[in-house]
Amino acid sequence: MPGTTARLISMSEMLQCNYRVTGDKRGISLTHKAERLWFGPDPEDDRNVIFGIRSIPIIRSNYIASVSKVNYDIMHWKFGHPSKEVLQRAQKHTQRFPEIHFPTEDCVCPGCALGKMPNRAFPENERHASKPFELVHSDLKSFPVMSYRKFKYVITFYDNFTSHAWTMPLHSKAAAITAAKDFLEMVHVQHNAHIVGWMSDAGREYKSDLFDRALLEKEIKIYQSAPRTPMQNGLTEHLGRTLMDKVESMWHQACI
User: Fold this and answer.
1) Within a domain: 125
2) What's the alpha-carbon Rg for the chain, to the nearest Å?
3) Integer Cα distance of 31 and 153 in angstroms
4) Domain, as residue range, for 16
5) Which of 19, 33, 44, 151 has the greatest CB tally within 10 Å of its CB?
């Protein structure tokens, strides 16, 4: 870990440097000439399955790194780069969680900045609707697993003005046209409104002549995001991601 005061010890590297590994349930020993590194059971671990460093030799090898006191940065790295709020809750609700000092200012973690930002920040869209159904965003997502009723896809409709969303499960992508027509009819009958603009990506389900005619017959303006630029239709992309996160969570919980 660049820039830290503690490093992981690689067993493979130690063996390649002619260190000898011995051990039993009482502990593990790494020895090479006059150097010896001893790992013993954690006294707070009742099952004796957690081992920690009990003796530190004079550092002569680059593969035996210094050991420092646990701090916020180390816990942030070890737990997979969670937010500061998550670590604060962990400290409050987890037994024997180490006492660490939390920084008062938000520091940018290089790993988080590079790993959690797949693209550079996209300019904010200044175009916003001034009334309901003036601009509707739509997108099609695929479920990770097929539902009990054999639904594999979901189409979403997001109103730019009210932030209200509608979803319809689909058996196939071809059913997106029928679902869109049903949505247009629902807006007309239940809300006595007319959709002015329709924003979607450049997916095949939105580029067919049949789909274009269905919108043009209603005098609806068609907007499409550029290829490989989903952030231009970001509102419904965020909605789709939220839905998929919930679906994945419920599916994994059902498998437990």
Assistant:
1) no
2) 28
3) 58
4) 1-68
5) 19
